Amino acid sequence: MAFSLMAASSLSMHFGRKTPIRCSSSSSSAVSSQAKSIQFDLKTYWKQLIIEINQKLDEAVPIRYPDQIYEAMRYSVLAQGAKRAPPVMCVAACELFGVDRLAAFPTACALEMVHEASLIHDDLPCMDDDPSRRGQPSNHAVYGVDMAILAGDALFPLGFQHIVSHTPFDLVPESRLLRVVAEIARAVGSRGMAAGQFLDLEGGPNSVEFVQEKKFGELAQCSAVCGGLLAGAEDHEIQRLRRYGRSVGVLYQVVDDILEEQSKKLEETNESKRKKGKSYVGVYGIEKAKEVAEELRTKAKQELEGFEKYGDKVMPLYSFVDYAADRSFSFETSS
């Protein structure tokens, strides 16, 4: 599946239809004219990175004592069907500035560990009470609630340790690593993802924007920002990546809610209705959710306009926006 910037700016928010519409492009002429001739295959780029990331995650989380905790950790971290969106976005943001992806892999793996830890805890009976994840039993359904909690607790610090112990210092100065560690800690902490989970449990329908931004936007913006930090991006570029990542993260979830509603996958149970009320679709209706998604798509692309000097290196980040909106391909792979 090849993407071009021209095609990316004209694809519609079809949600199940393949009918493109013409949109007025706010992209700078420098980006548009340069990118018209550039074809970028996001599917191949993403799948190749998944293979590399899976291998490095396998090495990063070996079986050690106590075996049962490590087995529970590996069950989620190495689960089949994982899209690896946080690590892929981190690598893409790092490569945007011309830095070798080897500089980003330890942080990319740490982001996936943090992501999986959050999913393990999110699925717990005391949280969202989900019995399955990616078509397989949730971690707590296999290993028990106690082991699932410990697995999540162990993955968070292991991620930080992996960054510090495996990042090549000839590519990334220690000062940049400190900023990366601080960024991840902020994103998952009491003012980040944890705050989103709190309001998901306790808040009413008027908290949906905050919940979506914190539960889903935080990790995406953290992933993009960490890639930039590793590469030594300027502060104004980091802020662009922050706004870009936040928009893409929330966009992905809003589209998920729309697709779920349209495909009628939700069973009409009290539990499914409770979750539905925490989505844009559940609160505002499907048409308003589509408008929100299109606004987020536009915002994300606008933030990338400041990176025209990096040429085709920005194409993965552009293509992520349209993938988040359109889900143009699947990740069925044996890797």
TrEMBL record:
Query: Which InterPro entries does the UniProt entry name for this protein?
Result: Isoprenoid_synthase_dom_sf, Polyprenyl_synt, Polyprenyl_synt_CS
Q: Which Gene3D superfamilies match?
A: Farnesyl Diphosphate Synthase
Q: State the needed cofactors, names only.
A: Mg(2+)
Instruction: Fetch the Pfam families from UniProt.
Output: polyprenyl_synt
Annotated CDD domains: Trans_IPPS_HT
Keyword terms: Coiled coil, Magnesium, Metal-binding, Transferase
Q: Which domain of life is it from?
A: Eukaryota
Give start-end ranges for the coiled-coil region(s): 256-306
Family to which this protein belongs:
Belongs to the FPP/GGPP synthase family.
Which protein are we looking at? Uncharacterized protein
Name its species.
Answer: Citrullus colocynthis
